[in-house]
Structures are given as C-alpha cells and as structure tokens.
Write a structure and sequence with these properties.
This protein is mostly helical. It is 55% helix and 0% strand. It has 19 helices and no strands. Helix 7 packs antiparallel against helix 8 and helix 14 crosses helix 18. The chain is globular and about 60 Å long.
Length: 299
C-alpha cells in the first residue's frame, strides 16, 4: 500500500473513531499520520463528526492536534462565542456543506436554540432544505426539540401536510384531508405523513391518517415504513398502535367511523402480515432503544 492510500485510510478511520468517541483510537490514528483537517467525500471532518455526536473530549483532542473549527462545527457544538467570532471574521452564515446542510440546519438538529436564535437574528432563511429534503424545522421536530421548533415556527418556517403530521397538528391534518389532500403524498424528504408521524410518536395523527386509508406498507426515505420509523425512535406507543391486529387486519372501521362522520368509514387495508418488516423494525428498536423489551413485540 502506497503512502497516500495509507494516509487516506487512516483519515477515514479517524472520522469513524471520532464519531464513536474512542479517545485512544483517535490518538492512535493521529500518531500514525491521519490528516486531522481532511474531509471525507461528503465534506465531513473528524472534528465535525465528533461535534455531531457530542464527543467533547474528542473535540478537545482534535483541536490540540490542529483541527480547525468552522461555522458548521460551531453550530453542532452549540458554541455561541465561537459562532460570533467566526461570523465577525467573515464566515458565511448561509453556507452549505456537501450534503446541503446549513449552520441553521445543524443547530436545529442538535437543538441549540441559542444558536438558532442568533442565526435567525442575522437573517438566515428558515426554508432551506438539504439534499435529503430535510429543513431545520423537520430535523428539530424529529429530534424532539420543541423550543427550537417554536423559534423556527415564529420565524415563518413553512409547514406542509407531512410536516403537520410530524408536528402532531391533528386539526391541520384533518382539514387538509377533508379538503382533498392525498393521504399517501410524500414530503420533500420522501417520507409520507404516516412515516413522519410515526417517527415522532404522534399517535393521534397516526390514528387519523390510518382512518383516512394511509398505507401501512408505504415506504418513505431510506425505505422506512411507519413501523420501522417508530422502532428507530424507540416510540413504544406508536409501535403498539401499528402492531395492533385490528389495524393490521382491516378491523379499524369503527374508529374510522368515529373520526370521519362526514363519509362512510374506510377500512384500513392490510393484505398480509409483514413478517420481514416486523423483524426489521424489531432489529431497529433493539439497536436504537436500549430500554426496548422483547415483550413489547410479542403480538
């Protein structure tokens, strides 16, 4: 293996270990010649990766090794003093990285309300979406940061049908559906309203969407179904609802009738039991929810 290839490999490993928070291995990669400021193919540096995962000890170690902060790492770390210093030196608050993420998107993702406020005060737009179709609002909502969501809403962040389901705005979803909104329509991120609601444990919206005929099997971004999205977030209430045999076997007509008094009830269609989907969702729950219990999946 030539020297350049070895250096590239070490630098890639450095990013992985920085995100894992393994100080010993990070130091080993640095000692072996990993380039501390070299980004990967998606523009992610080791410092930014460590900041994304909240590994402050690794951040400190990388800085000692010469890692350079930028406006994205400041946003991820929630470091207001650093953010102001970078902006004073001419850093672009509207900058986007290789994935289309802005400092506002990263700050919202981490729930750093003070950084979000700072960026909004200097006129950063709230409607920018990254390459995956996520905006600052959608990421703040899926990560469970209500204060940040409130700030973005006050600043005029647009809320579409899928966003309303994700935010748990039941009446807005109902009005849209009664007005002819397609219940299976996907948002910018590729997720349906059902998947979005499941990802945030919005059980009332899940009930409503299912009553209007939302497809349990419909996959959104990354191929996730609603059940998989709920499992990934460890949302037990949503999992119980989506695993309910009455819902799965099309016996939800009585509930549909109660929420849709203006129209004949439509049964939730379910042609087959999703063994493969259920197993995948169980795996995601065990991986992402350390408190997950097998008993909750025994239906």
């Amino acid at each position: 293996m030539d020297t350049d290839t070895q250096t590239e490999l070490l630098t890639s490993k450095l990013l992985v270990e920085a995100m894992r928070g393994d100080l010993e291995r990070v130091q080993r990669m640095l000692d072996q010649g990993a380039k501390v400021n070299r980004p990967n193919g998606r523009g992610m540096t080791a410092l930014r990766g460590a900041a994304m995962q909240g590994n402050e000890a690794v951040v400190a170690l990388l800085r000692e090794a010469g890692a350079e902060d930028d406006i994205f790492s400041a946003a991820l770390l929630g470091d207001g003093r650093l953010m102001r210093a970078l902006l004073a030196r001419g850093a672009d608050a509207h900058a986007t990285d290789e994935e289309g993420d802005t400092p506002l998107i990263w700050a919202a993702y981490k729930g750093h309300a003070h950084i979000v406020s700072l960026l909004l005060e200097i006129g950063v737009g709230v409607d920018t979406a990254n390459k995956r179709g996520h905006t600052a609002l959608t990421l703040a909502a899926t990560q469970g940061h209500p204060v940040t969501v409130g700030l973005l809403r006050q600043a005029g962040a647009p809320v579409g049908f899928v966003d309303a389901a994700m935010l748990g705005e039941v009446e807005a979803v109902r009005v849209a559906l009664d007005g002819g909104q397609n219940v299976g329509e996907s948002g910018l991120s590729g997720d349906t309203a059902l998947v979005a609601a499941a990802s945030c444990n919005r059980t009332e919206c899940l009930h409503l969407l299912l009553a209007y005929g939302a497809d349990l099997d419909a996959a959104g971004a990354r191929g996730r179904t609603a059940l998989m999205a709920a499992a990934e977030g460890g949302h037990i209430e949503a999992i119980h609802l989506l695993f309910d045999p009455a819902v799965r076997c099309g016996r939800g007509a009585s509930f549909a009738r109660s929420v849709r008094s203006d129209r004949p009830a439509r049964k939730v269609r379910r042609d087959r039991y999703p063994t493969q989907t259920g197993r995948s969702a169980w795996f995601m729950a065990m991986r992402h929810n350390p408190l997950g219990e097998k008993a909750k999946w025994q239906y």
